[in-house]
User: Which sequence fits this backbone?
């Protein structure tokens, strides 16, 4: 009987402590692309357009769907202001809704973007200010280690339609610690003949683009 | 009438009181009128209301001190020409009106102005007019004789017609809205209301010469051959055009914004679009906003690379950035309770920054921050006009001029 009481007390204490630790230490948030503060679809065919996400009709670029293929990429940045100071990233996962694709063993790349970019971002420029246009190191943000990170965050092989998840813990940790500023990511296709279509976060599918982040006190 | 002395003293006293009262009343009236005129320029009420029933458009030139209001339904008074003094007061006594030209063979039809635009540097005004009531049998006459684009020279306070253009089968008529825009360098005039491919709409432009006149373009002459086996050419004033039916197929006239010579932005289904005249492989860029109303009247910020779209007959407004006319970054949208917008958004930069939008019997003033983003609460000002379409702002005078059907009592 005494042993039972001790065991019960221990269980209760453990449960209370567990709850306490969970409440105090770790928290998981899921943000969607509705909190993205920057997006741009860039294409060498429309070198000044910021919304060259897809070409629903010949000669017309739009944001209604997202097509990535060689020389046509997509940049996006989540606002991470919801993560409080003094916490570290325990885990982060990006979810992207892939719709259709074509090509042999199709795959796409996720890169960290390195320089600041914003209004007027396009194939030629990363930013257009009132009196100057700031170019990418290479058109299409193609400069390795200058426009985009030295290595891709991930190379995602597309095998079926639906949500694709990518581990982005390292990127979030870099941004959260201040080791690198959050300039967002870039989706590219590097293999000739490969085309990947995603649901557009700049039109109706913002809620399908998710960033799940677990953080805890440092 | 003879009064004795005490009576005379009383009378003089009564008279002096009366005179005193009259003087006091006059001073009060003057003070009140000054206060009333001063109220027009306060941040709370920057409106100057101008009586112009049937107004379709309005524009002001600070450089010329001229306020022009286009009016529909007034047979001989299509354009009201008003001068504005250095304090922003409108000279109503010196107002004149202009009748837009209508060919004799089309006298049974009714012409009306749809937009008026000043040339950015020259002393010219471009007026876009349309007509209704032409019979089917008169189509050829309309195409042969009716000029949609009228160019007036400004001489002092008067306007003189110097040229007409935009006639023929390249232009639709009977449109309820019309839009023209001249780029900041005055090199090109863009226009709406062109027929597109397979019964959809198109946009067009004329290049302008150094005098602000549309320039003809080489046009092949059918049935002729030159020494190279090509058609011979003649110079004709026909517009460069692009069919935009996939992004807007019932009217392209809800507003044109031309921040550069090469690119023009226009209202498209549920959002905005752009025409890049330098890129034939990607001539159009289209940004529909998910869930937004179909038609939006668009206007531009005069100093910042920002456009605004106000839903026609509805309450939603969007704000979107651009770079040299290329739409960029995500739009912001807000709703204004009770609004039914009728006019293009007119930005009033200054302190505070605001965007004014005319609606049904009211004007909404939406506060903006220094970057042109929505901030704070909307203020509505009641006016007597069922559909406010004539709205223009003077940055020099910091006043918003609005054409109304009746003045406030």
Assistant:
């Amino acid at each position: 009987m005494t042993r039972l009481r001790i065991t019960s007390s221990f269980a209760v204490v453990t449960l209370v402590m567990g709850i306490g630790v969970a409440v105090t230490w770790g928290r998981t948030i899921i943000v969607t692309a509705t909190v993205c503060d920057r997006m741009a679809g860039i294409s060498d065919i429309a070198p000044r357009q910021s919304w060259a996400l897809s070409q629903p009709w010949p000669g017309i670029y739009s944001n209604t769907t997202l097509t990535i293929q060689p020389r046509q990429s997509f940049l996006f940045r989540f606002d991470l202001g919801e993560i409080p100071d003094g916490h570290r990233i325990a885990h982060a996962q990006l979810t992207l809704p892939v719709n259709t694709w074509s090509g042999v063993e199709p795959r796409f790349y996720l890169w960290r973007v390195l320089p600041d970019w914003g209004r007027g971002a396009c194939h030629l420029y990363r930013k257009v200010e009132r009196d100057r246009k700031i170019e990418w190191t290479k058109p299409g943000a193609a400069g390795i280690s200058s426009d985009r990170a030295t290595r891709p965050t991930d190379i995602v092989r597309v095998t079926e339609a639906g949500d694709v998840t990518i581990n982005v813990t390292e990127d979030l940790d870099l941004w959260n610690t201040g080791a690198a500023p959050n300039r967002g990511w870039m989706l590219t296709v590097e293999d000739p003949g490969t085309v990947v279509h995603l649901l557009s976060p700049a039109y109706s599918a913002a809620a399908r683009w998710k960033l799940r982040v677990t953080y805890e006190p440092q | 009438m003879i009064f004795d002395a005490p009576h005379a003293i009383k009378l003089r006293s009564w008279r002096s009181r009366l005179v005193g009262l009259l003087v006091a009343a006059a001073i009060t009236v003057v003070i009140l009128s000054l206060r009333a005129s001063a109220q027009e320029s306060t941040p709370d009420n920057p409106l100057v209301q101008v009586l112009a029933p049937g107004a379709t458009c309005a524009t002001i030139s600070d450089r010329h001190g001229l306020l022009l209001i286009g009016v529909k339904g007034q047979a001989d008074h299509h354009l009201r020409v008003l001068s504005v003094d250095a304090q922003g007061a409108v000279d109503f006594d010196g107002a004149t009106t202009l009748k837009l030209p209508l060919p004799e063979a089309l006298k049974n039809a009714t012409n009306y102005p749809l937009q008026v635009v000043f040339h950015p540097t020259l002393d010219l005004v471009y007026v876009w007019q349309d007509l209704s009531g032409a019979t089917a049998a008169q189509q050829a006459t309309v195409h042969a004789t009716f000029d949609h684009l009228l160019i007036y020279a400004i001489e002092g306070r008067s306007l003189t017609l110097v040229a007409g253009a935009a006639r023929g089968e390249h232009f639709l008529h009977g449109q309820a809205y019309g839009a023209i825009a001249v780029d900041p360098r005055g090199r090109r005039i863009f226009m709406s209301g062109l027929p597109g491919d397979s019964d959809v709409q198109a946009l067009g432009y004329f290049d302008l010469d150094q005098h602000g006149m549309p320039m003809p373009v080489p046009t092949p002459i059918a049935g002729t051959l030159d020494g190279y086996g090509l058609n011979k050419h003649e110079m004709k004033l026909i517009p460069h055009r692009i069919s935009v039916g996939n992004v807007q197929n019932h009217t392209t006239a809800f507003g044109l914004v031309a921040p550069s010579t090469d690119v023009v932005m226009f209202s498209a289904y549920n959002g905005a679009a752009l025409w890049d005249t330098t890129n034939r492989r990607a001539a159009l860029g289209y940004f529909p906003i998910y869930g937004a109303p179909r038609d939006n009247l668009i206007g531009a910020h005069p100093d910042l690379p920002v456009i605004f779209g106000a839903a026609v007959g509805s309450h939603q407004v969007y704000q979107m950035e651009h770079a040299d006319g290329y739409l960029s970054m995500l739009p912001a949208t807000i709703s204004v309770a009770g609004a039914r917008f009728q006019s293009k958004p007119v930005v009033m930069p200054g302190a505070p920054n605001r965007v004014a939008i005319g609606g049904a019997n009211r004007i909404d003033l939406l506060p903006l921050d220094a970057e042109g983003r929505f901030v704070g609460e909307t203020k509505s000002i009641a006016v007597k006009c069922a559909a406010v379409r004539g709205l223009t702002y003077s940055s020099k005078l910091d006043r918003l001029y609005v054409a109304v059907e009746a003045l406030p009592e």
Q: What stands out?
A: The interface with chain A takes residues 246-247, 274, 276, 279-288, 290, 305, 321-324, 326-330 of chain B (CB under 8 Å). The longest helix of chain B spans residues 5-39. The radius of gyration of chain B is 25 Å. Residues 7 and 13 of chain B are 10 Å apart (CA to CA).
